[in-house]
Amino acid sequence: MFQKTKNGSIDQLGRTNRIIEETIIKGDIESITDLRLDGVLYGNLKVKGRVVVGPKAQVYGNIECDNADIEGFVEGKMLVNDLLHITESATIKGDLFVGRLSVTPGAVVEAKCDMSNAVGTLGKKDEKDESKKKVSKGE
Fold first, then answer.
1. In which element (H, E) is residue 24 found?
2. pTM of the entire predicted model
3. What is the number of domains present in the chain?
4. What's the pLDDT score for residue 8?
5. Most buried residue among 10, 13, 52, 87 by CB atoms closer than 10 A?
6. How far apart are CA 100 and CA 80, in angstroms?
7. Where does the source fall among the domains of life (predicted)?
8. Is the residue at 120 inside a domain?
9. What is the pLDDT of residue 1?
10. Once rounded to an integer, what is the mean pLDDT over residues 29-57?
11. Residue 132 — φ and ψ, nearest 5°?
């Protein structure tokens, strides 16, 4: 299934997981390869690579990845370490933590966007946000 390279690591170049239309998943997904979602996901998505959310896809949960192309619907927090590209057919509701952002005219984005420091995890971002709130309130 996977081929090991000379140094023992797994070569994932050119491999992409695909979840096709009319597929509904309830639960979290983790992948070490790119993933294209054209179905519906009720859960979190953590990918070491690129995530593509197709035009008919829906995600109700958090997404964490290196790069993302969003063409469908996402409701939740997104942590994208590098580039988040949002196309004209996309609708995003939630909080965005990104390295770089590209939005095509026509996209619907109802989100707070933080481009200051995307690298990390969603949980760590939440902890940092809470500590900032406490400091600003004098706690």
1. strand 24-26
2. 0.77
3. 1
4. 47
5. 52
6. 8
7. Bacteria
8. no
9. 42
10. 97
11. -65, -40
60: in domain: yes
C-alpha span between 63 and 85 (Å, rounded): 14
For 4, half-sphere exposure in the C-beta direction (CA atoms, 13 angstrom radius) is 4
For the record, the structure tokens of 87 come out as 């196309």
Task: For residue 105, give the amino acid letter.
Answer: P
| Domain of 41, in residue numbers | 17-109
Q: Considering the domain boundaries, does residue 88 fall inside one?
A: yes
The rounded distance, in Å, linking the Cα atoms of 103 and 88 is 8
Question: Would you say 74 and 56 are in contact if contact means Cβ atoms under 8 Å apart?
Answer: no
Instruction: Calculate the CA dihedral of residues 105, 59, 127, 108 and round it to 10 degrees.
Output: 20
Length of the chain: 139
Strands, E assignment, the chain? 3-4, 10-11, 16-19, 24-26, 29-31, 34-37, 40-42, 45-47, 50-53, 58-60, 63-65, 67-70, 73-75, 78-86, 91-103, 108-114
Q: Is residue 126's pLDDT more than 80?
A: no
